[in-house]
Amino acid sequence: MKIALPLLTVAILGLAACSAPSPAEKVVNVYTARHYDSDLALYEQFTRETGVKVNRIEGKADELIARMRAEGANSPADVLIAADAGALWRAQQAGLFQPVKSAALESRVPASFRDPDGAWYGFSRRARVVAYDAAKVKPEDVDDYAELASPRFRGKLCVRSSDSIYNLSLVGALIEAWGPQRAEAWARGVVANMARPPEGGDRDQIRAVAAGVCEVAITNSYYYLRMATGEDAADRPVTEKVKLAFPSLDGKGTHMNIAGLGMAQHAPNRENALRLMEFLTSAAAQTHIAANNSEFPVSPDLEAPESVKAYAGFAAHPMGAAAFARRQPEAQAVMSAAGWR
Questions:
Q1: Which of 19, 92, 315, 332 makes a 20 to 30 Å CA pair with 143?
Q2: Are 184 and 80 part of one and the same domain?
Q3: Are residues 62 and 155 in the same domain?
Q4: Which domain holds residue 328?
């Protein structure tokens, strides 16, 4: 995985990269919260196929959103890429996207994984799941999200902080399904069950299960799958002890989130931006991302690649990403009221 440079450094490099091109140069300027070599390979392939150079600025989604807002109509950004529907919704609410209508995008991305008005489109899926100690927990103990708040796991749960966009989207989905009162009761149960105050990222929660700090942890599927496939040799023994469960929400399947993209409101290279958006949602690109970053394609017509196929048989909840993304403010309020730091 490519490690992101500090935002200031990236911004300085990006200013040069996104400067006005020569009249003969074709470019597309990408602000991205994804920092993977698999994505870089796709950008290079796009340039080979189209002759359009991809300039990129990397940073956290909220930092990139703040930057685009500050740049206003002078922003060089053509496309914003984020790793969560909630982040895409935040950009949309800030007026940073323009609606895009494309037969290619609409045929490749199911309605549940794109904005109804075309502000943003998903190109990969990931599940919010449970990592558990197989020696202490049975699969049926964690086959429903509600069970994570039960007394069975008092003092035995690891989870990251409430400002994690992944957790906000999960709680947003619970609010959409259950209403705010039941969602807050669940959040209070989660807080009561925490083995330690929230800290670290998803991989840290998985490692904590292996170390015996907790018995269960909430994580995105692709973090576990990347650990299992040997990105870091030290993590392989972790995933031999820790297993993955795909809990259900009201018996309708596992909460699914997306990585996706939208065209910037003031995109100076609109035609090239659309070409890149269509390229990144193509069957070949979806399969490449799934294979190389342990995610799942958004298109139901695409078979999961071998690297994730063994984990692809779960039922996915049909809730649209836009439905839980717009619940971000409510989710934050619910988690704060529950004492989830």
A1: 332
A2: no
A3: no
A4: 127-254+322-337
Asked if 115 and 136 sit in the same domain, the reply is: no
What are the tens digits of pLDDT across the range 1-48? 333 333 433 443 444 445 455 555 899 999 999 999 999 999 999 999
Q: What 3 state SS string does the chain have?
A: CCCCCCHHHHHHHHHHHCCCCCCCCCEEEEEECCCCHHHHHHHHHHHHHHCCEEEEEECCHHHHHHHHHHHHHHCCCCEEEECCHHHHHHHHHCCCECCCCCHHHHHHCCHHHECCCCCCEEEEEEEEEEEEECCCCCHHHHCEHHHHHCHHHCCCEECCCCCCHHHHHHHHHHHHHHCHHHHHHHHHHHHHHECCCCCCCHHHHHHHHHCCCCCEEEEEHHHHHHHHCCCCHHHHHHHHHEEEECCECCCCCECEEEEEEEEECCCCCHHHHHHHHHHHCCHHHHHHHHHHHCCECCCCCCCCCHHHHCCCCCCECCCCHHHHHCCHHHHHHHHHHCCCC
Tell me, yes or no, whether 234 lies in a domain: yes
Does 220 reside within a domain?
Answer: yes
- Tally the domains of the chain: 2
Q: Look over the chain and give the mean of its residue pLDDT values, rounded to a whole number.
A: 93
